[in-house]
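Batch queue: ligand-bound targets. Current item pairs a single chain with zinc ion. No template structures supplied; prediction is de novo from sequence plus SMILES. Inputs echoed for audit trail.
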Amino acid sequence: MTPKPPDEFRNRATAYLRSKGFPKPCFVCETNSWTIEYPVVIEGLDFEVDGKTISNNNRNEALKAVCDSCGQIVLFDAMRSGLIFHSTGGLSYALDN
Ligand SMILES: [Zn+2]
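Prediction returned. C-alpha coordinates below.
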Protein backbone atom coordinates (compact mmCIF):
# COMPACT_ATOMS: atom_id res chain seq x y z
CA MET A 1 0.00 0.00 0.00
CA THR A 2 1.30 3.42 -0.97
CA PRO A 3 1.76 5.72 2.03
CA LYS A 4 0.08 9.10 2.02
CA PRO A 5 2.20 12.21 1.51
CA PRO A 6 2.96 14.43 4.52
CA ASP A 7 0.14 16.63 5.84
CA GLU A 8 1.97 19.80 4.77
CA PHE A 9 1.95 18.70 1.16
CA ARG A 10 -1.65 17.55 1.28
CA ASN A 11 -2.87 20.72 2.96
CA ARG A 12 -1.06 23.12 0.66
CA ALA A 13 -1.88 21.28 -2.54
CA THR A 14 -5.51 20.77 -1.55
CA ALA A 15 -5.96 24.43 -0.58
CA TYR A 16 -4.49 25.57 -3.87
CA LEU A 17 -6.57 23.19 -5.96
CA ARG A 18 -9.78 24.08 -4.15
CA SER A 19 -9.04 27.79 -4.61
CA LYS A 20 -9.09 27.10 -8.35
CA GLY A 21 -12.38 25.21 -8.26
CA PHE A 22 -10.88 21.74 -8.35
CA PRO A 23 -12.00 18.97 -8.31
CA LYS A 24 -14.20 19.22 -11.35
CA PRO A 25 -15.53 16.39 -13.48
CA CYS A 26 -12.98 14.99 -15.88
CA PHE A 27 -13.62 16.46 -19.32
CA VAL A 28 -12.80 13.14 -20.96
CA CYS A 29 -14.93 10.63 -18.99
CA GLU A 30 -17.01 13.04 -16.82
CA THR A 31 -16.35 11.18 -13.58
CA ASN A 32 -15.11 13.15 -10.57
CA SER A 33 -12.54 11.08 -8.76
CA TRP A 34 -8.92 12.24 -8.76
CA THR A 35 -5.64 11.17 -7.29
CA ILE A 36 -3.15 13.90 -6.46
CA GLU A 37 0.43 12.84 -6.88
CA TYR A 38 3.70 14.39 -5.93
CA PRO A 39 5.10 16.85 -8.45
CA VAL A 40 6.70 15.76 -11.65
CA VAL A 41 9.46 17.44 -13.61
CA ILE A 42 8.73 18.59 -17.13
CA GLU A 43 11.91 19.08 -19.07
CA GLY A 44 12.23 21.01 -22.31
CA LEU A 45 13.02 19.21 -25.51
CA ASP A 46 15.47 20.53 -28.08
CA PHE A 47 13.81 20.89 -31.45
CA GLU A 48 14.63 21.84 -35.02
CA VAL A 49 13.26 24.70 -37.13
CA ASP A 50 14.41 25.20 -40.73
CA GLY A 51 17.42 22.99 -40.10
CA LYS A 52 18.48 24.95 -37.02
CA THR A 53 18.45 23.26 -33.64
CA ILE A 54 16.71 25.26 -30.94
CA SER A 55 17.95 24.48 -27.47
CA ASN A 56 15.27 24.31 -24.82
CA ASN A 57 16.65 23.78 -21.34
CA ASN A 58 13.39 24.80 -19.67
CA ARG A 59 12.56 22.75 -16.57
CA ASN A 60 9.33 22.97 -14.56
CA GLU A 61 7.82 21.23 -11.57
CA ALA A 62 4.13 20.47 -11.77
CA LEU A 63 1.52 19.10 -9.41
CA LYS A 64 -0.11 16.07 -11.03
CA ALA A 65 -3.78 15.09 -10.75
CA VAL A 66 -4.80 11.80 -12.35
CA CYS A 67 -8.40 10.85 -13.18
CA ASP A 68 -9.08 7.58 -11.37
CA SER A 69 -11.36 6.39 -14.17
CA CYS A 70 -9.69 7.16 -17.50
CA GLY A 71 -6.19 8.21 -16.50
CA GLN A 72 -6.27 11.71 -17.88
CA ILE A 73 -3.50 13.77 -16.30
CA VAL A 74 -3.97 17.41 -15.32
CA LEU A 75 -0.86 19.41 -14.46
CA PHE A 76 -0.58 22.58 -12.39
CA ASP A 77 2.61 24.60 -12.64
CA ALA A 78 4.19 24.52 -9.19
CA MET A 79 5.97 27.85 -9.60
CA ARG A 80 2.96 29.79 -10.85
CA SER A 81 0.79 28.32 -8.15
CA GLY A 82 3.25 29.40 -5.49
CA LEU A 83 3.55 25.86 -4.23
CA ILE A 84 6.97 24.68 -3.27
CA PHE A 85 7.55 20.99 -3.23
CA HIS A 86 10.33 18.77 -2.07
CA SER A 87 9.68 15.77 -4.23
CA THR A 88 10.53 12.35 -2.92
CA GLY A 89 8.44 10.58 -5.52
CA GLY A 90 5.92 7.81 -5.55
CA LEU A 91 3.38 9.14 -3.07
CA SER A 92 -0.18 10.10 -3.84
CA TYR A 93 -3.60 10.54 -2.28
CA ALA A 94 -7.20 10.75 -3.37
CA LEU A 95 -8.73 14.23 -3.48
CA ASP A 96 -12.07 14.21 -1.70
CA ASN A 97 -14.93 15.87 -3.59
ZN1 LIG B 1 -11.45 10.74 -16.77
